[in-house]
Write a structure and sequence with these properties.
- By secondary structure, this protein is α/β, with parallel strands linked by helices.
- A 5-stranded mixed beta sheet has the order 2-1-3-4-5.
- Helix 1 runs parallel beside helix 5 and helix 3 packs parallel to helix 4.
Length: about 150
Amino acid sequence: MRIALEAAQAAAAAGETPVGAVVVDPATGEVIAVGANSPISAHDPSAHAEILALRAAAERLGNYRLTGLTLVVTLEPCAMCAGAISHARIGRLVFGAEDPKGGAVVHGPRFFDQPTCHWRPKVTGGVLAEESSAMLKAFFRARRKTAAKA
């Protein structure tokens, strides 16, 4: 999660919502790929940290199936990312802060609980949630201050 938090910090420094993700092989502890939110700079609405980390891991491993790997992300994934996690066959999802508005794992559509979901990872939430949440709150607080001055 510390690596994911560093990626989130890099996203914030680039003016992106601070979300970071890491794909890890739990058998070896090897970091396979890292992603940082970048939909603004990439001009791509799908450039969420999770999607970028999954893409990079699949490219590196030469396989779109990432069975047995763990995805660690600083924020509860949205519906798009939950779908990608399921399609990639991620073995375990670990996330930091919950997202009551946009999350789709423990909030909203609860994607992995749907009968049409074909693959369900093991899910662990709340890992370093305070740090993840504080980073997001500080980022949006600063954005509101900047917007108020304009």
